Amino acid sequence: MGKKVAEPKGRKVTLKMAQAAVKLTVDGRRRLDLSNMGIATFPKCLLQLSDVEELDLSRNLLRKLPETLDTFANLRWLDLHSNQLESLPHAVGRLQALCTLNLSNNRLSPAGLPPELGLLAGLRSLNLGLNRLDAVPHFLSALRELRELGLFSNRLGHDPAILRLLPKLEKVNMADNPLPPASPPPLDAIRRVEGLYLVPGDCLCRLCHQRCQQERERLDSRASGKTPNQRRPLFTGLLLLSPNSVARQDQEIGR
Question: Which residues contact 179 (CB under 8 A, 6 or more apart)?
C-alpha cells in the first residue's frame, strides 16, 4: 500500500478565536475574517457561526472545503482567494444568497468546478483569475445576474462562448491568457450595440453616407489585413450600418 499523503497541519482555529473575528461591516453585515492565518483545514467550529453573511478565508493553505458549506445559508460574500483549492464541493451551489465569490489564485481546473456552481442564481461577481482553466464550463452561462467575471492569468486559448450568453455581464478581465491576436467581433455582437439603425444607402445624406462608407471600409480592411482600396466592397450600398442618433443628426445637417 502506498503511503498516505499527510495533511498540512496549519494553524488551529478555536470557536473562541472565530467568535472574536466576527465584526460588523459598515452596512451592518456580520463578517467573519480569518484571512492570512495559515489555516490548512476548514475549521469545523465555524459551522456554529453559520449566521454570518460574509466569510473571508483568503490567503490561507486550504486544499478543500467541506460538503457542509451550505450550512452558511445567509452567506452573501465569500472570499477564498490565494489558497490551494483544486476543486469545490457540490454544496457551493446551495449557497443561494451568494452575490460575490472570489476564487482567484488557486489551482482550479474546469474539472474542479462542479455543475452546481451554475445554480447560484443571484451571483453578481465571480473571480476565477490565476487558476488553471483552459476552458470555461458552459454551465456558468446559467448565471443570469452575473455582472463581473475575472478570468485573467489562466490558460484560455480562445474567448469563452458563454460570454455572449450572460445578459447582464458588464466587466470581464481576460488579461494574461494565451489568446490569439484580436479579431473583429462576430456578427451576433452587433445585437449588443445600442441604437443600431439599418437604412438603404440612398436614404442617407451625402455626409452620413460618406461616414458609413469609410467606417465599413475600415472594418473590412481590419478583417482582411489590406488597406481599404485593396479590397472590393462586400456589398454595393443596398444597406449600411449606422447608429440611429448619428443618422438622424447628419440627415438634419444635410437638409
Answer: 156, 157, 158, 159
